[in-house]
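Q: What structure does this chain adopt?
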Amino acid sequence: MRRFRAQVFGWLFLLLAIGLPAAGAASEKPACVLISREIAPYIAMVEGLEDALGNQLLQRYFLNREGQPYTLAGPGGVFDPRRFSVLVAVGPEALRFLHGLGTDVPLVYAMVLNPGNVVGSAAPDFFCGVTLNLSAATQIFSIRRHFPDLNRLGVLFDPVNNQDWFDQAADVGRASGIELIPLRVHQVRGRVVLPADFQRAEAILFIPDRSIISQTVIRHVIKEAALHGIPIVGYNQFFHDAGAALSIVVDYRGVGGQVARQVEHLLAGKRCEGELPPAFAVHINGPVWKALGIGAGGRP
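A:
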């Protein structure tokens, strides 16, 4: 009996010396990160993901012009999702490709606006990932915090793309004491036609809208608004650099950290957190505020 106990204790000592796998340890299989395009926001998000996951093996893939994955490191050949513990789709094209494989390997997405629209009717009931969608409430409350005396907020959008968003935002605005003025744009022969009555607004909010992505159009609106002393609220660094008074900017590295938590849940055999809004920061453009004479109440 003593000899048996001695053997047991000997094996326990050996296991402790070697090191038992800890809870939440990295998977032996690498995780796959498929990136739609090699652009700065996507790469910043992936770097945030890699930093947050620490010792978890990750293999980066990109989509080529034919929409097929390739990698600059590791084995090439046919892309086999079974080699990976988790699949991470970065951008809509990557999500569409990985979701279309129909694999049982867990899938997490990031940097996707309206992910349900990307995969259509095949969208699962429970989606794991971080969207680029900031809720109407988040944006309106952020604007109210920085423009406490604001009464009328113009929203520039194409009703074909964002009428539902505007209707939801209008309800939130009323609850916050802000009247939302619809500044509807439309297209004629591929050319964006801007509304002429934007001067009714005390500030103008841009929202992500595929009809209003031209940098020339955005700069034009910011310039025209500035001539009338109207501050612009944008949604990325370009707006800040172009002269927006306030920008509600997605924190791409922060999104990487959010995605890392989703991946960690899946690797631990747990259910992911579902669909999350992105981490963001509010950037105030000091020189623009000064030039527009915006006071403590947030009005020129």
